[in-house]
Amino acid sequence: MDGTQARASVPSYLVWSIFNLLCCCLPLGVAAVVCSCRSENASGVGDMARAQEASRTAKILNIVGLVCGIILIIIVIVLQFVAAKH
């Protein structure tokens, strides 16, 4: 015991946020990347309450962005299929 305190790790979801930014939904991806960076910064300075809140927000934005991206891809595929039939 050298007096250092072990910190709990808070997930930042940065990789997922970047994936959403590039592949799914640009606006929600940007917001998720911002929240992910806020989570990492807050975790780095030891503000775990703020880090957990930013992490939670990033996770929600990533889920919504992924769902929107999947729905958009399905709509595009269906429209392409319908257009090809006519």
From TrEMBL:
InterPro entries attached to this UniProt entry: CD225/Dispanin (IPR051423), CD225/Dispanin_fam (IPR007593)
Transmembrane segments: 13-39, 60-83
Subcellular localization, as worded in the UniProt entry: Membrane
Pfam families associated with the record: CD225
Alphabetical UniProt keywords: Membrane, Transmembrane, Transmembrane helix
UniProt family annotation: Belongs to the CD225/Dispanin family.
UniProt-recorded name of the protein: Dispanin subfamily A member 2b-like
Species in which this protein is naturally found: Huso huso (Beluga)
Lineage per the UniProt record: Eukaryota, Metazoa, Chordata, Craniata, Vertebrata
